[in-house]
Amino acid sequence: MTTRPERAENIVQILIFLIVGGMAGAASFTHVHDWTMHNAPPETGGWFGWAEDAKIEAMRDAFARSSSPEEQKKIAADIQKENYDQVIYIPLGQYVIPSAWRKSLTGVLDGPATPVFWNIDKSE
After folding, report:
1. Residue 72, strand partner residues
2. What range does the domain containing 38 cover?
3. Residue 42 lies in a domain
């Protein structure tokens, strides 16, 4: 069993670790942020390497402000067309994680990367 001074010392060590780690993380972020803003396209205010297209931003705003699903669907199609025309994003590949389960399991739902583990029922 640890004594009260040992527990206090452990708490102080953890606090020091968290403070130093937080300061290192903040310094690292500041360095990365300064570098990216220095190398960003002039007068954009955007992060280096991120696409910036005023037309798409206007369409995104219109999408968020539209009230009908039909109008949102049309705006979404226009955004997709503009993305393809401007080549803002190039997919580099896809992946599928194979999964298997026995026949006695029912209700398995596929998730975005792996199956989710609720709604499962086991019958024997």
Report:
1. none
2. 1-50
3. yes
For 111, list phi and psi in degrees, rounded to 5: -100, -175
In a domain? residue 58: no
In a domain, 8, yes or no: yes
Tens of pLDDT along 24-61?
A: 888 888 877 777 777 776 766 666 667 778 899 899 99
Q: How many other CB atoms are found less than 10 A from the CB of residue 46?
A: 13
Q: In the numeric block, which tokens belong to residue 113?
A: 């990367």
Is residue 120 a part of any domain in this protein?
Answer: no
pTM: 0.45
Backbone angles phi, psi at 11, to 5 degrees: -65, -45
The string of pLDDT tens digits covering residues 77-110 is 999 999 889 888 788 888 777 777 788 888 887 7
Number of domains into which the chain is organized: 1
